[in-house]
Hints:
Elements: E1 6-11, H1 15-26, H2 28-35, E2 39-45, H3 49-56, E3 61-63, H4 66-71, E4 77-80, H5 87-97, E5 101-104, H6 107-124, E6 128-129, H7 140-147, E7 153-159, H8 162-174, H9 178-187, H10 196-199, H11 202-216, E8 226-227, H12 235-243, E9 246-261, E10 267-280, E11 292-299, E12 303-310, H13 314-331, E13 362-372, H14 377-387, E14 392-399, E15 410-417, E16 420-421, H15 422-433, E17 443-447
Parallel strand pairs: 1-2, 1-4, 2-3, 4-5, 5-6, 8-10, 10-17
Antiparallel strand pairs: 7-9, 7-11, 9-10, 11-12, 13-15, 13-16, 13-17, 14-15
Helix pairs in contact: 1-13, 5-6, 6-11, 8-9, 14-15
Amino acid sequence: MTMKPIQVGLLGIGTVGSGTFSVLQRNQEEIRRRAGRGIEITMVADLDIARAQAIVGKDVQVVGDARAVIANPQIDIVIELIGGYGIARQLVMEAIEAGKHVVTANKALLAVHGTEIFAAAHRKGVMVAFEAAVAGGIPIIKALREGLTANRIEWIAGIINGTTNFILSEMRAKGLDFDVVLKEAQRLGYAEADPTFDIEGVDAAHKATIMSAIAFGIPVQFDKAYVEGITQLGAADIRYAEQLGYRIKLLGIVKRRQDYVSPSGLAGGIELRVHPSLVPAKRLIANVEGAMNAVVVQGDAVGTTLYYGKGAGSEPTASAVIADLVDITRLHTADSAQRVPHLAFQPDAMSDTPVLPMSEVVTSYYLRLRVADEAGVLARVTGILAGAGISIDAVLQREADEVGGVGATATDLIILTHDTREGTMDGALAQMQALPTVLAPITRIRKEELA
């Protein structure tokens, strides 16, 4: 007996939506063999009805109102590809209330409202699948939730935003400054007209937030993430990093900290942060170039694993959307207790381990100080670091361009430190900045050995 195909409603047929439709059409026979029954997009909602109809052809019903899709009793699964926190949130909640399973690529929505969405889905006995929300076509959510389920995840570090990785790769390859490369990235379509979410690190922080929840069994807490983008990075720092054997990458980092003890005496904390990082050039992730994504996961049993691929684009993201459709098709008749929990841990077994403030994060640092070229400057700077208990790994001195009046020369002092608490480093930086021989704002970039 052949089962009738699962019917899918699609909300929004832009880049990812059209890719999903075409991959599903192209590979339908293969997908049916894997899923055990056909999967068909039978209804699409999009504001541009004519364009949507041109993509899907005359056999698919196209409507202008997304709620008509949710109200259709024939639709089993709703794919939300509208994006953002506004109408998308209402529609996802309404689809869940209507007893529909949901597939979404909306990382912003899940990072901010995931707790309420997953609770509603659990209550209604439906699935919300979101493989496409993190790292596009790379199946990182499935790897964390299922493939690595035997492990205590120790840390994850990922290049999870293609726009910023493209910009940093170009800055390094061509020795250009940020502004120049951003314009080029926009011209080539790698950056949006308004690239704020990408270049300020917000998009990567949404994805890191979701990974932190799955890795450690904590609720999604985007408001606790530390977020710093790449707009302040200069070509000089990328060059100096290279000379020291490092590359600069924008990383999303989540890390379990056993050594942390809160003021109330509770042990353990979670680091959740996005910022530019120096990574040793010999690490595989340091060599991920262009718009590609990569995620390194450290598990206690498995050791280090690396996931690499396209983090965006029509068909790579569609690959993840359709994998979710297949999962739901296989499992939707199963008792909800047999399904993989949304955040990998059973809903009643979530942890309240706190996300640490940035001042409690422990890492090592790259510092660049533009200083007056005179005797005793280095001694004063290293004296401040020593006084704060921060040990130095390496010091590099480079001649900087002329500063100030005739004959006033400056030197770039580059210091690499060993691990220290961020709060301790903040205090030392304030003291160094106050020195009259420090001529410009100090550049501080965190350093991750990832080993």
